[in-house]
Amino acid sequence: MSQDNASEAVTAETQPTLEDLTKRLGVLERKIAREKKARNMAENQLEQYSLEIYETNLSLKRALESATQKQAELEYLGLSSSYVASELPLNVMVDKIVDLTGGFSSASHGFYIISDKGKAVGGKLKQMWSLAEGWQEGNPFEEDVLSVLPLGEATLLDTWTVQSIKERNITTDQPIQTIFYTNFTLGGERIGWMAFFCTEEAISEELLSVLETAREHLLNGTRRRLADMRILKRNVQLQDSLNNLEKARKQLIQSEKMASLGQLAAGVAHEINNPVGFIRSNMEVLKEYLTDIKSFHAELSQNVKENDTLTLSAFEEACKKSDLDYIEDDSTDILKSNIEGLDRVKDIVDNLKGFSHSGDEALVPMSLPDCVTGALKIVANSFKYEHTIDNQLSESCPRIIGNTGQLQQVFVNLFVNAAYAMEGGGELSISHTEENDRVILHVKDTGSGMDEKTVKQLFTPFFTTKPVGVGTGLGLSVSYAILEAHDAQVVVDSEVGVGTTFNINFPMSTATEDS
Amino acid sequence: MKGIVFVKFGEFIEELWGDEFWDELLEEADLPSGGIYTAVATYDDEELFTLIGLVVEKKNISSKDAQFAFGQWVFKELYSLAPGGAHDFKDVFEFLHAVQNFIHVEVKKLNPDALLPEFEFLSETANELTFNYQSPRKLCFFCEGIIRGLAEHTGQEVVVSQPECEHEGDQRCVIKVEKV
């Protein structure tokens, strides 16, 4: 192989052919074209991203502004709600709402006026709220505000009213362009007005809608406060009625007592009449005895005058003639009987006095047997010979907490009813049992008994089974009221034809209360 | 699929077989994008599968090997693009745990629309980690390759295998990584 041939061969191996180069060029051209397009795409994408970022920023900024605004609105509404819900008096609450609303809406001045029958009568007529200084004394705009507000129409507005007052040329630091106001009832014809001056020409819808929400809160707050006042007034009235009722109840108890006393009167009169009768006839006898003693004395005097002395036989004869021994003995008996009779009368009168006495209502430790015995004495005449009374109460019965006078009234009622139920005779038995801290009194009769319907109506006022004129129909209902006040419960067991038992459960007096 | 994968795939092919082969692939594939790839755009998944299919055909290798090789190669490329915090990991297992909680979070920040695989960790010992690879793209072999590339980066010897694989008829793909 020649040198040339060798170098040619080398050239053929290392030097790319035109075809290779053309192919290579094609690959590279396509690669460059792809890269170029890719770069354009990337740049476009970048532009797109930039635009998106710009728009995102813009919307974020708006969102932030709106969030800040919303936060301010929420703060405003939250604070105004808390004032409304607070226990602040109405005027103080409105002051604070004016302050808050003025600040929130960037009003320049705020006013609070109360009108009555179309005339401004109060609120803060001589004061004014300003954005810079809050509430302050003096109101140079009083006339302006009063002439704008439709006080005379006296109608309640259902939203805020916005009105241009540019033409009035009210000038502070800046000219006032707008006034917005609303009102709310203060009861009767009294109306509260809130008004604000604004240097802007208009008020945005959004601001108005927030103000409207606050206005509704305020209305609720004023309504609640007015209702509170009404309730307070009503409470006082109710308390008065309650006091009157209590007074009436006391009077009723006393009247009923007197009425039952009236019904007992005939029996009581008989009770008194009896001893009075035999005392009187005793006195007749004593009068005769006195005549006898007088003649005995005259005879003795005669005898002494005639004989200058009195012999034993003469004295004995005179004694015998006047039956002096008998007179002596009988007089002693008569006097004893009279004293007893008078004691009986006194006893009855004492019990009647105790019964009719209205007394106080204090509940104190008291003896149940004593009270029952007293009541039995008052009604003694209601029971006849065919009645037996078995009073098993003894001093061993624990003392209870009660009012003797009132309970006696209850027992008199029960006993009279028992006697009435046992018209043809029977037995009234009174006993007690103890249960925990309670003493249960059982008043049992063997009378006609009652059916279920009657038992149910037993304590109903004006319900009576007695004929007209015999009962008031109030006895047991009054008794029930008395027992209720004693914290005493009544259980009635009754069977027609067998009898009735009243079980009354009284609070027992403890030792400390006793002492 | 994000353009970065296509860009890196092109670089990988060019590095391995030259830009003429890449040009040949694109010419033959006749893709909707025309093979004009930028990292910031998104392309149809099918384009990648078409390109891989052509490589498999022309170089007479399996799709699994092709995906694995690309995964292994691309790890260091992607890693260099990752934000600073991603460089603190020194262990394969630690990194795999961080993928969902950290790497994918960072990816989402830049590409909110990116569709990312999820790992469900099944078991872990000091030397063995298994997890369920969940992705509608079913690129489990690519994932295996990436783990291998990760191990090369941390200087650890690992064996990556798939006890279960959807391509083998299983219900799911379970990838097992063993330190040796």
Write the topology of this structure.
The complex is a heterodimer of chains A (515) and B (180).
Chain A lengths: L2 H12 L3 H68 L4 H15 L4 E8 L2 E5 L3 E4 L3 E4 L4 H7 L12 E4 L13 E8 L4 E9 L6 H103 L4 H11 L1 H33 L7 E3 L1 H12 L7 E5 L8 E3 L1 H18 L4 E10 L2 E8 L6 H5 L18 H11 L3 E7 L3 E9 L3 H4 L1
Parallel strand pairs in A: 9-11
Antiparallel strand pairs in A: 1-2, 1-3, 1-7, 3-4, 5-6, 6-7, 8-10, 11-12, 12-14, 13-14
Helix pairs in contact in A: 2-3, 2-5, 3-5, 5-6, 5-7, 5-11, 7-8, 8-9, 9-11
Chain B lengths: L2 H15 L1 H11 L15 H15 L3 H19 L10 H19 L7 E7 L3 E7 L5 H15 L3 E7 L8 E7 L1
Antiparallel strand pairs in B: 1-2, 2-4, 3-4
Helix pairs in contact in B: 1-2, 2-3, 4-6
Pfam families (chain B): HNOB
InterPro entries (chain B): H-NOX_domain_sf, Heme_NO-bd, NO_sig/Golgi_transp_ligand-bd, V4R
Protein name (chain B): Heme NO-binding domain-containing protein
